Amino acid sequence: MRRLWGWLWRSIALFFVLLLCYQLWLFAHIAWWVGHNPSTSAFMDTRLEVMQDTNPDAALKHQWVEYAKISNHLKRALIASEDAKFVDHEGFDWEGIQKAYEKNLKKGKIVAGGSTISQQLAKNLFLSTQRTPWRKLEEAAITVMLETMMDKQRIFEIYLNVIEWGNGVFGAEAAARHYYNVSAAQLNVVQAAKLAAMVPNPRYYDTHREARGLQRKTAIILRRINDSEIP
Fold first, then answer.
1. Rg for the chain (alpha carbons), in Å?
2. Rounded distance, CA 160 to CA 146, Å?
């Protein structure tokens, strides 16, 4: 019995050592990205693997562009669409989470997320697409690290460069060229609003660009865009 308890405590201790090492690995990556641009993300790698399962020559469309060279229309549109309180909160919009919970409860299924831009970035950079309690806890921990180590502009710059905007299309520059054949700096307000409206379901909207729901959400973003505060 004593041997069993000893084995159990050693296993628990090993688990926490491995967990600490993983957190330090995350911390080191985020610290590096304060001043260096990530070349890829966990989600980008996953999507590339899926694409190459059917086409070994498949490649992602992705080109990093600095914050100042991305249209302010797109920045405002994304904040209006995804996280209206981005510049004010510390990573979590508790009111938004509560509203999303109540909406999901009323519908009896998940129809709203309530995730902030910081939370979305945490998930895209490091985590799988599986919805598990462990992943949500890790997402929260990474979000705290991002908000602690980076200012809002840097978080938003990385977000703008790594989020998905179509099948194999990642980042504002690739999206602007894929949909409108212009640079991210040249996007006008209507183009920006439509791109922001695509974010929740980009692969679908890539092939259904005139979908009624997309048009409706674009119109909502256009009404809200001038109230958006960007870092």
1. 19
2. 15
Count of structural domains within the chain: 2
User: In sequence order, which residues have a C-beta less than 8 Å from that of residue 30 and are 6 or more positions away?
Assistant: 142, 145, 146, 149, 150
Please give the full DSSP string across 139-158, using - where no structure is assigned. Answer: HHHHHHHHHHHS-HHHHHHH
CA distances from 113 to 96, 163, 176 (A): 9, 16, 26
Residues with Cβ within 8 Å of 92's Cβ and at least 6 positions away in sequence, in order, are: 116, 118, 119, 140, 143
| Exposure class string for 107-132: b at 16+ Cβ within 10 A, else e | eeeeeeebbbbbbbbbbbbbbeeeee
Distance CA 120, CA 92 (A): 11
Domain annotation covers residue 118 = yes
| Residue-wise pLDDT tens digits, 67-118 | 999 999 999 999 999 999 999 988 887 776 676 555 655 555 454 456 899 9
Q: Is residue 194 part of a domain?
A: yes
Strand 164-166, strand 169-170: pairing: antiparallel
Does 169 fall in a domain?
yes
Question: Are 168 and 98 in a shared domain?
Answer: yes
Say how far apart CA 18 and CA 225 lie, in whole Å: 45
CB atoms within 10 A of CB 41: 22
Output the six-digit token pair for 218.
């674009």
Mean pLDDT of 138-154: 95
Full residue range of the structural domain in which residue 23 is found: 1-36
